[in-house]
Every structure is written in C-alpha cells, then in structure tokens.
Specification:
Number of helices: 19
Strand content: under 5%
Helix content: over 70%
Distance between the termini: 48 Å
Number of domains: 1
Shape: globular
C-alpha cells in the first residue's frame, strides 16, 4: 500500500473539547452525577440493613415520608438512566470516524482502551474508596460489548433496549398474579378462622406465606439480621473493620446477582441512548413541541406509575404491587422525561444561565463522582472522619446531600475556569490516548490582546 493510501486511512484522535462539546449533554451529565448523591448518601450513612429491609428504620417522620416519596417518584434510578443514555451517545461521539465500512482500527482501539481504564477506576472506587455501589465498573463492562451495536437501525436499538424492561414487566406480572391469588386465599382463610372453621392445606400454606412476607417487610430475616449485628461495630470500630464491612457489602452484591442485573439494565439503556442520539433527541436537535410532548407523556406514565408504587410500598403489607410490572419501564420513561426537560430548560432564556452552571459539573463529572465518595464514605461517615451518626432520617440526609452538591457545583465552576478538564478526566484521557493531555486552560492570543 502506498504512503498516500495509508495516510488517507489515518485518523486524528483527540478528546472533545471547548466549542466542539455539546452544551446540553454536559448539563445533563452534570445534573445526573450531582443528583446521584441523593441516592447514595443513605447507603453511605447507614444502616444499610435498614435500606435493604424496612425503610422506616432510616426515619419515618412526616418530612421523611414526603422526601422519600418525592425522591422515589422523580429521581430514584433516573440519574443512572440519563448516564446510561449518555454512555450510549458517548460511543457514537467516539466512533464517529469509524462509521464507514469497517472503520479504522484506531477508533476501536481507543474505545476499548478507554473502557478498560474505566473498569480499573471502577475497581479503585470499590476497593480503594470503599464504595460498594460503584457504577463505573458496570458501565465499563457494558461498554466493552457495546461497540458492534453502533450501526444498528433505531428500530432495532429501541427493540433490544426495551427488551429488558419488557422481561421485568412480564416477570412482575406473574409475581403480581401469584401474590393476588395468595391474598385471595389468605382472606378466605382469615374469614374461616374467625368462624372457627378448619383450613385446608392450600389455605394453611397461604397463611404461612403471608405471615412470612410480613416478617420480611419489617426487615426481620437472617441475612439482614446478620448485617444489622455486624454494621454498628464496623462503623464504630477501627478503620480496618469499616473497610472490611464495605468490601463485604460489594461481595454480597455480586453473590446475590445484582451485578449481572445491573449490567443487563445498563446495557439496555445504553442501546436506547444510541437510538436517542441517532434521532437527535439527546443533543437538542428536535423541536420544542416534540420535547414538550415527550415530557408530558414520559412524566405522565413514569411518575404516575411510580407514585402508585410508592403508595403500595407505604402500606407495608404483602399486597400485590403494580411496581413489580412497571418499575423498569417507568424508570426509563422518567429518565427520558428528564432528557426532554433539560433540553427545554436549556432553551429557556430566563433559566439558561442557571442551567449553564451544570455544564462545568458535566465536564468534570468523573472527578465529581469520586469526590462524592470521598465526601460521604471518608469525610462524613467514616470512623476516621466526622463520624456522623446513621439513621438520621430521609429528610435530614437530603439536606446533607444538598449541601455537598452545592459545594461541588461551586467547585466545578471555579475549577473549569482555570483547567481544561477535571483532574481525573485528565488522568483518564492521558491514559486512554497514551499521551499527556493539556491541563491548564490557556487564553488565545486574540483574547489576551
């Protein structure tokens, strides 16, 4: 092959910076990465057994109930949803020069190397910063298998992307039907018992199952009881015990299959993100009318289904719950609604300056994510930090999260005035490109003059 032909296949690879960045994507990323702290801080504060068992154990005042319900309806899981959509879009940005033919190997090489480093950072987050709820390693595992899907048509991306939600909905429907039958049999058994009548085997089994579920709802089961006994001394003792407890928390997540579930969830949403990118929906290329319609429909179904789900959970009884059917579909819908809302807010002149504050957070989201772990796990609730008490109540934890988020938002806007990227973004990019990247923000000669 001649040198001219070889040169024609060379690709100039470099991080997206400055004016080449899409502002609304940075805003979206910044809002999602800061918002995720509201979901993470209860696990950091503990007791974790309360979160996995009876949520009332965290505090259940009127304010706590309202805060818990608002977060569950509007935000829980949707920051992951937006980040997963953005991850899919990120593949399309990275692979833009690999869309013709088989594409240059350099792009795939960069993409794989970048995500292998992301996997390494995720493991550092788990075993170094002690955060068992890390999402980076999950996204890295998904991303390693995502590249071949970049050329699929939108209809297939959406079909595959919604398959996981459909699967959970079908499974939830079977669970709902089974519980409804148990409830019916249990009610008949209670009526017979009130009249001193003898129960048949099916009714006896229904009563036992119903009572067992009631016990589990209060968090009274062997695994949680074991964790409930182990957590206080780990948090109150030396740092080695604290670290060991956090590591064991991650190993329990893996053992229970939650890692595999998380990979399927994230990968499916990333496929939807690629589709939304191809449709121009993520990056603000659709009309205002289309975003308004999307917002109304997505929020209407998603938040409506989630609100009903919170009411079902707040009964603290074994009744059949529609949330088993709607949970993943509603999560994706509300995440989609947030994308529409952020695009609309970015266009609204009175609010554009406020939204612009989140651009800086989005440009250094990777660094902020690690800073949240440092703030929560090491500074606020660690035995070697402030050692704040757990079970402070949902409302109080939300206020603490708001203070941390506000500090990080200010920090991000100050930092990005002087630097091209966040500190960890700089490390990640330098490793991915095998070349030291620019760090300090340098004014152009024209601006300096």
């Amino acid at each position: 092959m001649s040198e001219a032909v070889t040169a024609s296949h060379e690709v100039a690879l470099a991080p997206v910076r400055g004016r080449d960045r899409i502002a609304v994507l940075d805003m979206m990323r910044g809002i999602a990465i800061l918002g995720i702290f509201y979901m993470n801080i209860p696990f950091m504060a503990g007791p974790i057994a309360a979160l996995m068992g009876d949520i009332r154990s965290m505090g259940w005042s009127t304010a706590d109930q309202h805060v818990w319900q608002i977060i569950e309806v509007t935000w829980e899981g949707t920051q992951r949803g937006m980040l997963e959509f953005l991850f899919g879009a990120g593949l399309m940005v990275t692979a833009a020069k690999a869309m013709d033919g088989d594409g240059p190997v350099a792009v795939a090489d960069l993409y794989i190397r970048r995500n292998l480093w992301l996997l390494a950072f995720g493991l550092l987050d788990i075993f170094g910063l002690l955060w068992p709820g890390d999402i980076l390693h999950v996204y890295a595992l998904c991303a390693l298998g995502l590249f071949p899907f970049r050329k699929l048509k939108v209809k297939w991306l959406l079909t595959l992307g919604l398959a996981f939600a459909a699967f959970t909905a079908v499974g939830g429907a079977f669970q709902y039907a089974g519980r409804a039958e148990t409830q019916k049999t249990y009610q008949v058994a209670v009526e017979k018992q009130s009249h001193g009548q003898k129960l048949n085997k099916e009714e006896q089994a229904a009563v036992k199952e119903w009572k067992d579920i009631e016990i589990r709802i209060t968090g009274n089961e062997p695994f949680l009881n074991q964790m409930r006994a182990a957590e206080p001394p780990a948090r109150a003792g030396n740092f080695a015990a604290y670290a060991s407890f956090m590591w064991n928390g991650y190993l329990e997540i893996v053992a229970k299959g939650s890692l595999l579930f998380g990979v399927f969830e994230a990968f499916s949403a990333m496929l939807i993100g690629i589709a939304l990118w191809k449709l121009g929906f993520l990056q603000g290329k659709r009309s205002t009318k289309e975003y308004v319609i999307a917002l109304v429909l997505a929020y209407g179904f998603g938040m409506g289904a989630r609100y009903i789900g919170t009411l079902e959970r707040m009964t603290f009884t074994p009744i059949p719950k529609t949330l088993w059917i709607t949970s993943e579909l509603a999560r994706l819908a509300v995440s989609f609604g947030h994308v529409a809302a952020i695009n609309l807010l970015a266009r609204a002149k009175p609010l554009s300056r406020i939204m612009d504050l989140f651009r800086s957070a989005g440009q250094m989201a990777f660094s902020l994510y690690f800073m949240e772990q440092i703030a929560g796990i090491w500074v606020m609730f660690s035995p070697i930090g402030m050692h704040l008490p757990g079970a402070q109540g949902w409302a109080h934890l939300a206020w603490q999260a708001t203070i941390v988020v506000a500090i990080l938002l200010v920090f991000a806007n100050v930092w990005m005035r002087f630097f091209v990227s966040g500190p960890l973004e700089w490390v990640w990019r330098s490793l991915a490109y095998n070349k030291r990247q620019p760090f300090l923000r340098v004014k152009s000669p024209a601006l300096a003059a």
